[in-house]
Amino acid sequence: MTALYEVLNHPLLLPAASGLMLLFAGWFFLLAMRYRRLQARQIAHLHRDFRALTAAARGVGQRVLEIERRQRNLAERQDQLDLYDAANQSYDQAISLVHRGMGVTELVKNCGLSEGEAELIYLLHRLDRTA
User: Fold this and answer.
1) What's the pLDDT at 16?
2) What's the whole-number average pLDDT of the chain?
3) Which band of pLDDT confidence, cut at 50, 70 and 90, is reported for residue 10?
4) Domain membership flag for residue 8
5) Residue 89: partners with Cβ closer than 8 Å, 6 or more residues away
6) Residues 101 and 130 sit within 8 Å (Cβ to Cβ)
7) In a domain, 83, yes or no
8) Which domain holds residue 28?
9) Neighbours of 90 (CB within 10 A)
10) Rounded to the nearest 5°, which phi and psi values hold at 119?
């Protein structure tokens, strides 16, 4: 036990142990600094990626809005065309009836036209048959 006591009481043991601990502390500090720099680079990279994704999402949002606007315009145009077709259907039917020999009264009854419209269609298309 005296040998252990002599080793533990050696005058260079405390400075050597302190130096070794200081060396390990410095090494851990360098590792921590390296890890911190690595994290800073990763955060910067993530920040750039986030900005790129945000810009892309903004662009996609604008495209979606433009597509929605175009879809509304197309729907309105389709509705107008549908109304145009519905209005012209009675005229087409009236022209067909005139070609089959019907008169103004039959056009008013069957096609829902006013008398003036029926007379105009009758006069225009009756002439087509005679020509």
Assistant:
1) 85
2) 87
3) confident
4) no
5) none
6) no
7) yes
8) 23-130
9) 16
10) -65, -40
Count Cα atoms within 13 angstroms, Cβ side, for 59.
6
- Locate 12 and state its tokens: 């260079």
**For residue 101, is it within any domain?**
yes
Contacts of 117 (CB under 8 A, 6+ apart): 91, 94
The 3-state DSSP class for residue 129 equals helix
pLDDT tens for each residue of 105-131: 998 888 888 899 899 989 988 876 555
- Identify the CA nearest to 112 among candidates 125, 85, 93: 93
> % helix / strand / coil in the chain, to the nearest 5?
90, 0, 10
Instruction: Work out how many domains the chain is built from and give that number.
Output: 1
Residue 5 structure tokens = 């006591």
Q: pTM score, two decimals?
A: 0.43
User: Is 110 part of a structural domain of the chain?
Assistant: yes
